[in-house]
């Protein structure tokens, strides 16, 4: 399979490569964020929004899920460069209105990148694409709901519809949405989690009894050792750097485990402090282990075996709170160090140095993200991380614990609210008892299974609550084809993206408010609630007036759709939900475990923290009522001669498929995204040269090949045999069938590729990269029209 790169995306005439910086954040970060904000929002709106971001009486950043400091400990500017970009992206004054759609037929929009589409601005009214239509056209809300309801009611079975969620949706909208979907009759609720931390959720649920992390922000501050594995906080969770700085000041050591020496793990200049502006900043990682991609399972086994050998065992914890220790220890005693060396690319001395850091710490927090979860053996790797924590009793005590760092700002809350294709029985019992109908019990489709069902004609309607399914999902060509076979695709969105232009026979875009906007649904000022990566739940109120008077909130959209589809079936309180979200919170309090008195508790300054038995009392609600040591085989991911193991990552200028700009400052890239980072010796061994353009061709076990054209080779330090390139440009390379065992998460961090002669796009005479802001995107509203 192959596809041409969009011409304006092949930016070889502008792309610049320089040395990555030695420190991150600092005044440069503030300057970059403010420039982008003022360009798109104007001065007044910039100050109006950023002032309220992450404040107790303000709104929750729609960027990442990193927690806020306790009330009283927040800065006047409690946000990071990338948080400011996320707000700008939403609060921009650019607009996509009916004239835009009239001027841009789908044939035109289909050739645009996600960057161009996103830069056009906020969508202002609902639009519809009729069967065989050439343009999206305005449609009334009522007609839109009637169209969707007509399709849904016409299905042979509710299981022929798929209801996706991205992780920005508020708890109120998520709860109402899953209630609607289950009342309609299906558990087909795939979400972005299925491509993200699903491996974590599955592994932790099995071994500690709950699929969430066990630490608080205070634990990070108090830790003696912080391990950061497969995560790039400088870009993806920049406010974590402030917590790491505090921890360092308190004496913590930091161990970074990452094939790349990410600038954000090296040195941090806190832009909120004079010291950060003037001085050299804080040294972060004490040790960086440049692990080979996918070597973490073997690495944690090796660390475990050394700790065992050195007698570093918390006997009391192991005896009182765990099962399976003996089997695990026996397995590690047979560990083959040659296999470890090949899997990790590290020698024994390096691993011993890391193990000594564990040995010398009596309170260790281990953090991880996509570098761990998006591999074939990801679930086993997370369990191995847990094994090492159990060994030293590093869970359920101050300064210690397991810390999966989540992605989307409310992805964890959405799951708590029931956005889950495999809901636990007790959750469904709760819904039944509260709402008096029998919810479906059959597990639904996750993201990969949903694509397969669409592809095979088994699913016919796709409904997306936020997100950009087509670009975010693996195997772009297969996914796009699957979407095209649908009878109807619907997206509740703030901005245009590729999922709107690769559509079913009929398509709708329902424009919604973002979190920065004042929600006056039902004629009253509504607030919503969200949960961060550390299970803290709190309220969020947007300060801005909505991007257009025709927008509706996600809650409103769900309730209206439910009324149109279900009529008075099951007699559910949609009108009450819509007129006052307090009514939804009252129901959440009665259905969702740990949420008693929800509405009162979320209003406390800083909100409240959901219960977590391992963290709170060292109780482990697993099948064995204890924490479970598990045994996994030590593996080496085999890469054939002449091939590379490619990981697909985020640049500093994007939020998932939303591209803020074309720079990746911390990796020394300017003005381009089609780059592939390769070790200089590998470049030479392949007879290639730095700066050359190549196609990336992935090879899958069934013999099929996938091609992503025209990437510029950039020599970059990392373990031999490894490579990195940006997502989503590389999603065409990830085979749909290549997923993690146990969680079905696409293996976006281990794709076997070869570098092939460039076939597409090199003839680009003019790079359009710089001109995306030109033309239609100039159609902005005046700031004075808004308040
Ligand atoms: N600004 C910004 N913030 C974001 C996002 C964004 O796109 N932009 N996305 C949000 C979302 S949804 C998520 S899930 C998170 C993602 O946050 P991250 O997980 O930090 O995101 P990635 O860019 O995928 O980076 C993965 C990191 O793992 C490393 N890595 C890759 N393979 C391996 C491996 O085999 N072993 C080890 N040890 N390391 C490996 C990579 O070098 C890289 O540093 O960020 C969230 N926050
Ligand atoms: N190759 C590869 N693929 C990956 C990954 C990877 O590392 N490598 N990472 C995976 C991960 S971790 C994740 S989480 C997924 C992300 O997958 P998604 O969550 O589906 O993707 P996003 O890019 O975050 O979605 C952006 C769109 O959301 C809409 N939006 C923004 N704000 C709002 C809002 O407030 N409400 C509504 N209704 N819509 C809004 C906008 O229209 C915007 O275009 O991608 C996954 N795919
Ligand atoms: Mo994510």
Automatic annotation (TrEMBL):
<feature type="region of interest" description="Disordered">
    <location>
        <begin position="1"/>
        <end position="23"/>
    </location>
</feature>
<feature type="compositionally biased region" description="Basic and acidic residues">
    <location>
        <begin position="1"/>
        <end position="17"/>
    </location>
</feature>
<dbReference type="GO" id="GO:0030151">
    <property type="term" value="F:molybdenum ion binding"/>
</dbReference>
<dbReference type="GO" id="GO:0016020">
    <property type="term" value="C:membrane"/>
</dbReference>
<dbReference type="InterPro" id="IPR041953">
    <property type="entry name" value="YdeP_MopB"/>
</dbReference>
<dbReference type="InterPro" id="IPR006656">
    <property type="entry name" value="Mopterin_OxRdtase"/>
</dbReference>
<dbReference type="Pfam" id="PF01568">
    <property type="entry name" value="Molydop_binding"/>
</dbReference>
<dbReference type="InterPro" id="IPR037951">
    <property type="entry name" value="MopB_CT_YdeP"/>
</dbReference>
<comment type="similarity">
    <text>Belongs to the prokaryotic molybdopterin-containing oxidoreductase family.</text>
</comment>
<keyword id="KW-0500">Molybdenum</keyword>
<dbReference type="InterPro" id="IPR050123">
    <property type="entry name" value="Prok_molybdopt-oxidoreductase"/>
</dbReference>
<keyword id="KW-0479">Metal-binding</keyword>
<dbReference type="InterPro" id="IPR010046">
    <property type="entry name" value="Mopterin_OxRdtse_a_bac"/>
</dbReference>
<feature type="domain" description="Molybdopterin oxidoreductase">
    <location>
        <begin position="122"/>
        <end position="491"/>
    </location>
</feature>
<keyword id="KW-0408">Iron</keyword>
<dbReference type="Pfam" id="PF00384">
    <property type="entry name" value="Molybdopterin"/>
</dbReference>
<feature type="domain" description="Molybdopterin dinucleotide-binding">
    <location>
        <begin position="644"/>
        <end position="727"/>
    </location>
</feature>
<keyword id="KW-0560">Oxidoreductase</keyword>
<keyword id="KW-0004">4Fe-4S</keyword>
<dbReference type="GO" id="GO:0043546">
    <property type="term" value="F:molybdopterin cofactor binding"/>
</dbReference>
<dbReference type="InterPro" id="IPR006657">
    <property type="entry name" value="MoPterin_dinucl-bd_dom"/>
</dbReference>
<dbReference type="GO" id="GO:0008863">
    <property type="term" value="F:formate dehydrogenase (NAD+) activity"/>
</dbReference>
<protein>
    <submittedName>
        <fullName>FdhF/YdeP family oxidoreductase</fullName>
    </submittedName>
</protein>
<dbReference type="InterPro" id="IPR009010">
    <property type="entry name" value="Asp_de-COase-like_dom_sf"/>
</dbReference>
<keyword id="KW-0411">Iron-sulfur</keyword>
<dbReference type="GO" id="GO:0051539">
    <property type="term" value="F:4 iron, 4 sulfur cluster binding"/>
</dbReference>
